[in-house]
Structure formats: structure tokens, C-alpha cells
């Protein structure tokens, strides 16, 4: 089953499935991540639009997602915000001109994109030279026992949801040619991390 089909299928229950982790962690992380942003922002994999409420009023937000069903929920969330534009497209082939955005952001997206390095190269391309790419993601731990468990269960999560829980995202950012500013551990030791980089 394709990624589009999987996320179209999960779109009806996606927000319900994430209620516990959203309440415990995600909403706090989203608020902190987006509070300092301004200018033109591209959100890659905007999904059902749960980040929309956290963008400052100074942001002009362009959101894209590969799933039309997920975008239908994001559209509902963006109705009161005229500074949000939504597009259906593939993260590996962004339909925007070079150097278009002040910020390019993802939250828990690079785990499900088939070719994450290509997607990151696209993020680099559409980000302004002085802009910043921010990726808040879960990824393969550098702690042996945790990495072992992630590798063990990854075939199951990939088959069921298309989500890879053992992506080496920091290395993928480097492979895409982005220059890392900093990497911060967010939760579960180093499973959840926030990476900031520049083109």
C-alpha cells in the first residue's frame, strides 16, 4: 500500500490516536518550536494541521502534504487564518522556487517519507540562504539497547503505518548538504530530537 493510501486511511482516526502523546508532550513541544518563527514558513507534511494554532501572527504559512484526506482536516483548522495556504504535493519534489522561505519545518514527518535525504535536499533548495530548517523528529537512538528495540520493531511499524522508527535523521540532514546549527534531545533520552540547520 502506498504512503498516500495509508495516510488517507488513517486520516479519520489520526488525531484520536495521538491524543495521549499530544496531551503529554507534543503540544508543549509545538508551542516552544514555533514561538520564535516569523516571515514565510513552509511546513513539510502538515498533516491534519495540528501545528497551525501555534504559529505566531507574523508568519505566512505554506503547508503541504502528500495526503488529500489529511489536508482536508488541515483546511478546517486553517479557516480562521488567512495567512495559511495548503497544497497537495510530494516532499521529494516540492513545487516551489529556490530560496523561497525563511523557515522550512517538519514535525514527525521524516520517519515516513520514502527517501528522506531527497526530501531534505528539497527543503534546503527552497529555504533562503540565510534561512533555517527545523526538524522535530523521532529517530534511531545512539543508546544501544534502545536502538536494538527500534530495529526490532521497525518492520512492524513500517508495515502497519509506513513509519520508520529507526531513521538516522541527523546523518540524513548532513547527507542532504545542510549545515547543522544544533541538535537538542527533547525526550526519551535521544529518541526525540530537534535539529536546526542552514542551507
Verbal overview:
37% of the residues lie in helices and 27% in strands. The chain is α/β, with parallel strands linked by helices and 199 residues long. The chain has a single domain, classed as 3-Layer(aba) Sandwich (Rossmann fold), CATH 3.40.50.150. A seven-stranded mixed beta sheet has the order 3-2-1-4-5-7-6, sandwiched between helices. Strand 4 (101-107), helix 5 and strand 5 form a beta-alpha-beta unit. Helix 5 (116-126) crosses helix 7 (169-175). The radius of gyration is 16 Å and the shape is globular.
What structural keywords apply?
seven-stranded mixed beta sheet, Rossmann fold, 7 helices, alpha/beta, 199 residues, 37% helix
Tell me the radius of gyration.
16 Å
**What's the N-to-C terminus distance?**
34 Å
Shape: globular
Q: Which structural class do the helices and strands define? A: alpha/beta
Beta percentage is: 25-35%
Please list the strands of the largest sheet in the order they lie side by side.
Answer: 3-2-1-4-5-7-6
The CATH class label is: Alpha Beta
CATH architecture: 3-Layer(aba) Sandwich
| Overall tally of structural domains | 1
**What low-confidence regions span 5 or more consecutive residues with pLDDT below 50?**
none
Q: What is the CATH homology-level superfamily? A: Vaccinia Virus protein VP39
SSE string, helices as H and strands as E: HHHEEHEEHEHHEE
Q: Let me know the average pLDDT.
A: 94
With helices defined by DSSP (H or I, 4 residues minimum), what is the helix count?
7
The largest sheet is: 7 strands, mixed
**In percent, how helical is the residue content?**
25-40%
- Give the tally of β-strands: 7
Annotated CATH topology: Rossmann fold
